Amino acid sequence: MTKKKKKKPMLSPSAQLGVIALLVPIAITVCVFAFFAWKELQTLPIFEKLAREKELEEIQQNFDMKIPEQYIPIYVAAEEKYGVPWTLLAAHHRIETRFSSMKSLVSSVGAEGHLQFMPCTFVGWKHPSCSGLGKGDISKTELMNPTAIKKYGGYGVDANGDGIADPYDIEDAIFSAANYLSKNGAADGRIKQAVFKYNHSDEYVEKVLHYFNLYNDYHDEVKEAIAYKEK
User: Fold this and answer.
1) What stretches pass through the bilayer (predicted)?
2) Which of the four, 105, 111, 143, 225, has the lowest number of CB atoms within 10 Å?
């Protein structure tokens, strides 16, 4: 029987060591390059946007109801104009209509819209029909007329500039709430006083302040995340 000859290695042991010695620094260089390339990619807007979205999603997990993202820029715009924390506006919205998710935006006592204004508060208590709880006898046209609101000293605001101050328009409603809270002390830090003015109930104040404090823990983070997403 003929013995099979052993195949000789293509490279001698010393040559193999030489190749390994050559490849190691190349592999390290590639890894370092890949690391810094990945870091550089992470600075691109798409990665930053994804990071902001993830951060916002994680924050929202701390709330019993997520704050609808489409409302947050409106809260922030109202904060910038009236000096009322956007988190306070969100808290009121959460308590009043569960972020406008209720089937009806008219309460049993006649409060209307996303932020539940009594008609007399919206158009102004100087209106001749206003008394009692403030339902009044006010036509829809008069209720939403900025000129009438100015005449009767109301808090309704035409936030989007369409010539109508509408408590059923989300922008107008939020800006009107900010206007009311601001003029009743919230812009000066008298948050509790302003909330009590909004609804003369200690239980109501407690509920609003609970959500205000909860949201306020993330005031800047949410504001920055939303601002970046809008770029």
Assistant:
1) 20-38
2) 105
Distance CA 197, CA 191 (A): 10
Same domain for 53 and 155?
no
pLDDT, tens only, 77-110: 999 999 999 999 999 999 999 999 999 999 999 9
β strands within the chain, DSSP E: none
**32/137 same-domain check:** no
Give burial (CB, 10 Å; 0-12/13-18/19+) of 64. exposed
Q: How far apart are CA 215 and CA 92, in angstroms?
A: 11
Q: Hunting for tokens 């059923």 — which residue is that?
A: 168
Residue that has been written with the tokens 């006898």 in this structure: 137
Structural domain that includes position 26:
17-61
216: in domain: yes
Tell whether 157 and 108 lie within a shared domain: yes
pLDDT digits (tens, 9 = 90+) for 60-83: 999 999 999 999 999 999 999 999
Asked if 119 contacts 110 with a C-beta cutoff of 8 angstroms, the reply is yes
Residue in this structure with the two tokens 């609808």, named with its chain if needed:
68
Query: Exposed, middle or buried by CB within 10 Å (0-12, 13-18, 19+), for 92?
Result: buried
Residues 110 and 211 placed together within one structural domain of the fold: yes
Last residue of a domain, one of 30, 61, 92: 61
Q: What is the DSSP string of 119-164?
A: HHHHH-TTSTT--TTS-----HHHHT-HHHHHHHT-----TTSSS-
Please give the helix or strand (H or E) that residue 192 lies within, else none: helix 191-198
| Tokens of residue 4, six digits | 């099979």
